[in-house]
Design a protein that fits this description.
Helix content: under 10%
Number of strands: 24
Number of helices: 0
Order of helices and strands: EEEEEEEEEEEEEEEEEEEEEEEE
Largest sheet: 22 strands, parallel
Radius of gyration: 18 Å
Shape: globular
Oligomer: single chain
Strand content: over 45%
């Protein structure tokens, strides 16, 4: 661990810094800022459990399973957290659970006012043979998150959908670029989102979502450019490709987007 029970307010990485295979846990650290000018973090991840934390100008390069952090490059369980100007490159190993950014609240809100802005995320999923999740951004019980001005380039295998007794929820789908559930007042704005199929698995109803929204009222999806492609499935063979997959919510504003599938 690089830091534990951090109480100072600022930490800056020099341009030449390189960190390899570490988990940085940020707890009891209000208004804490990590900033690096092209700092390079190899298989190094963050678990943010404090309020007012900012990560800025950091580069992540990941190609290993991250079991100690629930599969996430960055895991957030705090209020007023900002992820700004990050470069995340995650080539996921075969058949493991993985996320670039995860805020998963099972017992109340996991975050409030989370901002993911001005960042570039490249994510290559390979959960071909298992029912494990590969998702770029997964947020649950996060109040008023903002995802703005990011470029997300992603590829995934087509996967089966597991419907529950009450229909689809965020956990029904195993692959997507952005997934939100119980995230009221969200804003997804001015992003470029690219989603490609990298493998057709032998499943019933092979499916891939770009954006999945569930039980998240009063949200906005504005001025985004969304591109989805599948050059793996042969012509004439069915696939199930969804740009926006929407379930059980009210008052969603969708405006000014460019969507190509």
């Amino acid at each position: 661990r690089l830091s534990e029970k951090i109480r100072e307010n600022y930490k800056q990485f020099s341009p030449a810094v390189t960190m390899d295979q570490m988990l940085d846990e940020i707890s009891d650290a209000y208004n804490y800022r990590y900033r690096g000018e092209k700092a390079y973090l190899k298989n190094t991840v963050f678990n943010i459990q404090s309020n007012g934390v900012t990560l800025k100008n950091l580069s992540f390069d990941l190609d290993k399973s991250i079991r100690d952090n629930n599969g996430a490059a960055i895991q957030v369980n705090g209020y007023d957290v900002t992820l700004d100007s990050l470069d995340i490159n995650y080539v996921v190993p075969n058949d493991v659970e993985a996320y670039a950014i995860l805020s998963d609240g099972l017992n109340g809100y996991s975050s409030e006012n989370l901002k993911i802005v001005n960042s570039n995320i490249s994510f290559e999923g390979h959960n071909d043979n298992v029912f494990k999740y590969n998702c770029v951004i997964k947020l649950t019980y996060a109040n008023a998150p903002i995802i703005e001005n990011n470029t997300i380039s992603s590829s995934f295998p087509l996967k089966k959908v597991q419907y529950g007794t009450n229909g689809a929820t965020l956990d029904s789908d195993y692959v997507y670029a952005i997934g939100l559930e119980q995230c009221p007042d969200f804003i997804i704005k001015n992003n470029t989102i690219i989603v490609d199929v990298n493998k057709r698995t032998a499943v019933e109803y092979p499916t891939l979502n770009a954006i999945m929204l569930s039980k998240s009222d009063n949200g906005s999806f504005l001025n985004n450019s969304l591109f989805m492609t599948d050059f793996v499935t042969p012509p004439g063979i069915e696939n199930y490709i969804y740009g926006l997959d929407i379930h059980n919510l009210n008052d969603l504003l969708i405006k000014g987007n460019k969507i190509s599938i």
